[in-house]
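Encode chain A's predicted structure.
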Amino acid sequence: MSKPTRESLAHEHHPEAIRRRLNTAETPRTLPDAILGGIDGCVTTFAVVSGAFGAGFSSTVALVLGVANLLADGFSMAISNFEAIQAEREYIEDVSRSERRHIDLVPEGEREEIRQIFQRKGFSGETLERVVETLTQNREVWVETMLKEEHGLQPAGLSPWRSALATFLAFMTVGAMPLIPYAFHGMGATRQFAASLAIAALMFFLIGMGKSLVYHRPILRSGLRTLLMGGAAAGLAFATGHLAQLLFGIDI
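Encoded structure for chain A:
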């Protein structure tokens, strides 16, 4: 990705541009949820396909197992993500209530916490006291500062429903891709698996590339890294299925 020019940076740091950026409400970040859901969906379904092919199961069995895992795991992952974000929100609310109570009961102690936090950042003397006085004049700013600086919590941008939906949709969409060849029964098991392998590899690579564009990382490196991680999971599933065939004498 090309580096921004001095002119573009100057434009972005104009007082009015900064004001608009800071006044824009922070929206929930769903991209990490979508990336996680997409990768996990593709890994899950292709792992099932690989395991079924390695064990010698028919394409119909592979398709049924893949669809069943796609629905069950996609729903489970979305619910788990919902519960995780909801638990984090509830924890932040509990800490916020606790800080408000501390401000009511021991305001000087809470001011001292603010003082020491900013003292560690390099403030001292009259400047430090002005910072403490300014922050503690507004109760909401005071509480928000304590949440971020003392507890390392970011209360903004948490939406359980949005995160769960993003995870589920990405899981279902990307996860369904490796199953497409198995809907065509005339291809033969080997060709179906090869096509599924190619599609899964493409999905992993595209997810990695998309991630790199958003987070400003080298495109090729990110794509290959995601491809290797997904391929490792699929290879493990294939080896497990093949080993199960040898150990238990599965013969389809």
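The chain has one domain: 36-248.
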